[in-house]
Amino acid sequence: MDDKLDAVDLNLQNYIKLNIFPKYDKYYSHGMIHINNVIDNMMILADYYNLDKNMAYVIASYHDLGLNVNRENHEYESGKIVSNDKELKKYFNNEKIQIIKEAVEDHRGSKKERPRNFYGECVSDSDRDFDIQILAKRQLATSLKNYPDLKTFDEHFKSCYDYICKRINSSGVFNLWTNNPTLTQRRDKFQKEYLNLEYTKSIYKEEWDRISEDGTMEKIMNYYEDY
Ligand SMILES: [Fe+2]
Ligand SMILES: [Fe+2]
Asked: What's the mean per-residue pLDDT of the chain?
């Protein structure tokens, strides 16, 4: 078992591993690579701010579950899944369930309003990809799914790259609600590297070649259900 999860109740971890993680099987850009990344970030923040580790773990694990119910409002669908989960009531009182639900509902980074509670700020910040490799993987998959008219690598790359550059340039930086030093440092390094077009393009190209050759691209189009 992972040491950063030492403080998370083992029975709760087992319940989530057996019953919740398999629900991400048909997700690619929101699959377990993403969920594990959000869990890792969330545990860093939970440690730093001395939060309830069980709550932090549940929030990160459940935050994108609602995607196959309703993509546009998936955060609210994930929130409903939290409130309807009877097993969670064995670990948390109603007040804590409400905090978990609100945090999950407020996780989206595109939201302009500050999350209603600090756990929501943490999961919103943890949901960011400050890693070009992971971003390339997720963004290319999204682009393939959402823009079927784009055909070549250059077209997909341009669309992905312009989107991120616009977000960096419109506000100067990706917003972080917590301004946690570890994440802020990671963000600054990421942004600096990302703006180096040749470098970023080479990483996206490597990912494009990999998914073209190993059958992943075909699975993104025809098997995975997220975007
Ligand atoms: Fe999400
Ligand atoms: Fe997410």
From this structure: 95
